[in-house]
Amino acid sequence: MDKPHGLMLLCICVFLECVTTHTARVERLADRKICADKHCSYVISVARALEDYVAADCRFINLRRGQTIYVFSKLRPGEAAGVFWSGSVYGERYVDQMGVVGYFPSNYINETYVFQKETVEIPTTDMDFFCA
Questions:
Q1: CA gap 104, 87 in Å, rounded
Q2: Alpha-carbon distance values, 27 to 103, 108, 125, 129 (Å)
Q3: I need a labelling partner for 118 at 20 to 30 A (CA). Which of 1, 33, 67, 70 fits?
Q4: Is residue 78 part of a domain?
Q5: Contact 109/86 with Cβ under 8 angstroms?
Q6: Interval 56-96: pLDDT, tens
C-alpha cells in the first residue's frame, strides 16, 4: 500500500473510532410513531409545559414550566411503556433560538393548538433513538 492510501485509511479508522466511542446504544421507546407527514418534518401541534422535566438521557429534552413546545411526533407506546412525544423547544434569549429537539413525557405538557389533524403512522428506526 502506498503512503497516501495508508494515511487515508488511518484517518478513516480514527474517525470511525471517534464516532463509535462518543455514541451510545439506547433502547427503543416505541416501534411506531405518529407524524404529520411521512418524514416527520412538519409540526403536528403546539403545547405548553405544565411543569419542569429533567431529561433522563441524551434522547430527551429538558422542559421548563410554561415553555412552548412544538410537537413533531407522538410515539405509540408498547406494553408497560410511557407515552413519549418528540418536539422542539426554544430558549428565551436570542442566542438560544436554535431549537433543541428530543423526547419528553406527554403527561408533562398540555397540547394547546393542533395544526395537523390528519396524521400518518410509520415505523420508528434506530436513528429515532440515537444518542450522540
A1: 8
A2: 13, 21, 11, 7
A3: 67
A4: yes
A5: no
A6: 888 999 999 999 999 999 998 766 556 899 999 876 655 55
104 lies in a domain? yes
Residue 3 domain flag: no
Q: From CA 123, how far away is CA 38, in angstroms rounded?
A: 10
pTM of the prediction?
0.73
Which cell is 84 given? Answer: 413519549
Q: Which residue has the cell 410513531?
A: 33
Distance separating alpha carbons of residues 48 and 46, to the nearest angstrom = 7
- CATH number, domain of 104, equals 2.30.30.40
**Domain that includes residue 112, residue range:** 27-126
Closest by CA to 102, choosing from 126, 129, 83, is: 129
Mention every residue, 6+ apart, whose C-beta is less than 8 A from residue 95: none
Question: Which amino acid, residue 11?
Answer: C
- Establish if 11 belongs to a structural domain: no
Q: How many domains does the chain have?
A: 1
**Is residue 132 a contact partner of residue 58, using CB atoms and an 8 Å limit?**
yes
pLDDT at 41 over 60: yes
